[in-house]
Amino acid sequence: MIDIEDLVVRRGTTEVLSGFSARVAPGESVRVAGPNGSGKSTLLRVLAGLTAPDSGRVTIGGRPPADPAVRSVRGYVQEPPPLYEHLTTGEQMEFTAGVWGVRPQEIRERADALGLAERLDVLVGDLSLGQRKKLGHVCATAHEPRLILLDEPFNGLDAAAEDAVRADLARWRSDGRTLVIVSHSDASVAGLVDRTLMTRARTETDA
Ligand SMILES: Nc1ncnc2c1ncn2[C@@H]1O[C@H](COP(=O)(O)OP(=O)(O)OP(=O)(O)O)[C@@H](O)[C@H]1O
């Protein structure tokens, strides 16, 4: 599903990823771990088609990540979640449902499971950080894509919401979806991943 060969990404004068290579098979679930600043989120942005590699080869199902054909098969649970501040929570769900061609009710049901039922009329800009995280999670995965990229999916969630997100991940995994999960916490993803890909801290000798 995912092929990464000798990926190099520079940010300013820093080489954040220096020759990162990995393969993820269809239906595999992998954790991405590594020190702060070692390029985990950057790697997800490359897979999401939002950051272009400086060199190397990255494909998803044989296509470049930015290929429009990849969009419908990929979901990206971003940190922080990209949401429309000036919409209400319910309107944000309806907007997302329209984009992906799913019924708003399907998004609302998943949001209810995360404890957002009481927040439908509240502006997204007035949600707490944890509530925004929950809304971002359901909106980014509304189309139940074959490949789901998640950046710290449990950060800032209460225990009940963490359980609900874990249940989503377990369901997607048993459905044979491919998961790439950036997570600092080994315990949070226990039983949900097949293996861990490590990003590497840069040292002075890399400079
Ligand atoms: N747009 C940008 N401009 C300049 N530097 C950037 C940019 N985005 C990321 N970086 C730098 O790239 C490096 C890697 O960042 P990234 O967020 O990918 O790391 P990470 O492994 O996800 O970190 P963390 O564990 O802290 O979330 C950091 O040093 C960061 O400051």
Automatic annotation (TrEMBL):
SUPFAM superfamilies reported for this sequence: P-loop containing nucleoside triphosphate hydrolases
Source organism per UniProt: Streptomyces lanatus
Stored SMART domains: AAA
InterPro entries: AAA+_ATPase, ABC_transporter-like_ATP-bd, ABC_Transporter_VariousFunc, P-loop_NTPase
GO molecular function ontology, one term from the record: ATP binding
Pfam families to which the protein is assigned, alphabetical: ABC_tran (PF00005)
UniProt protein name: ABC transporter ATP-binding protein
Top-rank lineage group of the source organism: Bacteria
Keyword list, A-Z: ATP-binding, Nucleotide-binding, Transport
Boundaries of every ABC transporter domain copy: 2-205
